[in-house]
Amino acid sequence: MDIAVYPGSFNPLHTGHLAIMKCLTERMGFDLVYLVVSPQNPFKGKELRQSGQERYEAAVRAVARHPELEVKVDDIELHMPAPQYTIRTLDALAAREPENRFTLIIGADNLEAILRWKDPERILAEYGVAVYPRKGFDMEAIKAGLLEKAAEKGLEFRIKTVDAPIVEISSSEIRQAISEGRKTDIEQYLM
């Protein structure tokens, strides 16, 4: 099976994530999406109000309310030693399920930063990425720059673009609205 690996803190999971997951199976041809709840993003501060287990359980409940989704919420990173590098997660999934092909799902913001990740060339060459648009990022220009760097090194990076709408809300904006007592401003985005 072709599986899209969509990691994140999902703090909280929202309708923007839902739209991306739908695009992955309906437009991109993935058989299944693994929504991988990460305990902590090594590039972000420790602003998480809920534990990884709590966010995992919330994601399971949210996905269960959408039976039309071809999504499995996966807690693999919650059982891995810190830090949870993406390449380790992809390698662990490939070892656990050698019959499947895995592709990493990231936003254009992360594509721009991917060369700062652990083993980015392995991620891009061995697993590949499918990139969804993010506000303020020129996905095609970022992709072209990475492909040029790969060619200079004699590598072949697998980078696909996801035909998904630009998500108008982020989890951090949702958390901020809740902390400021503006929950009615963001209720439409909650899953």
UniProtKB/TrEMBL annotation:
Pathway: Cofactor biosynthesis; NAD(+) biosynthesis; deamido-NAD(+) from nicotinate D-ribonucleotide: step 1/1. Gene3D superfamilies: HUPs (3.40.50.620). Its EC number is 2.7.7.18. Residues 5-176 form the Cytidyltransferase-like domain. InterPro entries: Cyt_trans-like (IPR004821), NadD/NMNAT (IPR005248), Rossmann-like_a/b/a_fold (IPR014729). It catalyses: nicotinate beta-D-ribonucleotide + ATP + H(+) = deamido-NAD(+) + diphosphate. Keywords: ATP-binding, NAD, Nucleotide-binding, Nucleotidyltransferase, Pyridine nucleotide biosynthesis, Transferase. It holds the Pfam family CTP_transf_like. It is an enzyme of class 2 (transferase). GO terms for molecular function: ATP binding; nicotinate-nucleotide adenylyltransferase activity. Catalyzes the reversible adenylation of nicotinate mononucleotide (NaMN) to nicotinic acid adenine dinucleotide (NaAD). This is Probable nicotinate-nucleotide adenylyltransferase. The gene is nadD.
